[in-house]
Amino acid sequence: MVPRIFAPTYVSVFLLLCCPREVIAPAGSQPWLCQLAPRCGDKIYNPLEQCCYDDAILSLSQTHQCGPHCTFWPCFELCCPESFGLTNNFVVKLKVQGVNSQCHSSPISSDCHSKRYFP
Length: 119
Description:
The strands form four sheets. Strands 7-8-9 form a three-stranded antiparallel sheet, with no helix packed on it. It contains one helix and nine strands, in the order αβββββββββ. The chain is elongated. The protein is mainly β.
């Protein structure tokens, strides 16, 4: 029988030996045991505070322009062109979690043509 004092040590050694992946955590956070660190290009980011958008790390609250009259949250939404020509219309659509979201298959969040948002 193993003394109770050594049990936490055995568990820690077991986790370190059985963890086949790199253990990396963003500065100021607790390490994530046996999980791949999320990356954006060659940089690590914290998915609880940030997202990866066009190989750039953004804050979850950051917004971008969608057409001339809308803003959208790139971490949660897509800016989708609806029509081209003299009047370029845009639609903001929701990203579906766990899926590689695309404009043609995502649900509409807001119509930039009917609502005019000015930052």
